[in-house]
Specification:
alpha/beta, Spore Coat Polysaccharide Biosynthesis Protein SpsA, Chain A, seven-stranded mixed beta sheet, globular
Length: about 240
């Protein structure tokens, strides 16, 4: 039996070369699990790390309610999120980055509305990033909204909660993590946006650059427009299975 089925909420944490932050990550996740408003667990997804992240992940899994998957090789952030959703059997599934620039405690804000919305997503308030990085993010969000019409203010915010059935219906592709609001809208799902806290990165290094902040999203927007025009969406009215 998949042990996530024993919980109402599963937090997916993709990890790629984050050995320096895993100890603090574990402490913050455990603090949330102890006071979470619903029964909650954590699913760490090792995305083919080449440092000692996997060793740190295994150590964390000695604690109750913390589980892991480990890829054979690096597959990317979208693949790690997809794998977490594929292996999740709780009612709700969430996502947070391992760099702790958002806090697991703010899942409390999102979970309050999770029953009424297929996606509840954070919006980073008072961002602790450089001016150049904020500019890149603002430009990318504006371009994406123009291409998708999803109205998401901060799709890059790594703090989200989804109803698991809706998450499992999302069509996945590389770069998918940038389009979760738009992909939920393709299902005629509802989204709510809530301001969450944002913190500076204290350990490790960012995995993002101008190349994957601009050119990658540009190509993905074009791919999304193509997919949107061909997306299959149906509801069964009756059956006798």
């Amino acid at each position: 039996m998949n042990r996530t089925s024993q919980y109402q909420f599963t937090i997916i944490v993709p990890i790629y070369n984050e050995a320096e932050t895993i100890s603090r990550l574990g402490k913050e996740l455990q603090a949330f699990l102890k006071q979470a408003p619903v029964s909650s667990c954590v699913l760490l997804v090792n995305d083919g790390s080449t440092d000692n992240s996997l060793g740190g992940i295994r150590n964390l899994c000695s604690n109750e309610g913390i589980f892991f998957l480990s890829f054979e090789k690096n597959c990317g952030l979208s693949a790690a999120i997809k794998a977490g959703i594929d292996y999740c059997e709780s009612s709700y599934v969430g996502y947070i980055d391992a760099d702790l620039q958002t806090s697991p405690m703010d899942f409390n804000l999102l979970l309050a509305d999770a029953a009424d919305y297929q996606l509840v997503t954070g919006v980073r308030a008072n961002r602790n990033d450089s001016g150049w990085r904020r500019f890149q993010s603002k430009f990318a969000n504006g371009f994406r909204r123009m291409m998708t019409g999803d109205e998401a203010l901060d799709t890059g915010c790594p703090l989200k909660v989804m109803q698991t059935p809706a998450a499992k219906r999302i069509p996945f592709f590389k770069g998918m993590h940038r389009f979760l609001p738009a992909l939920i809208m393709l299902q005629h799902g509802k989204m709510k946006q809530i301001e969450v806290r944002h913190f500076p990165r204290l350990e490790g290094k960012s995995k993002f650059s101008m190349r994957n902040r601009f050119w990658g999203p540009l190509a993905d927007c074009i791919a999304f427009r193509w997919m949107k025009s061909r997306y299959i969406n149906y509801k069964v009215a009756e059956n006798n299975l």
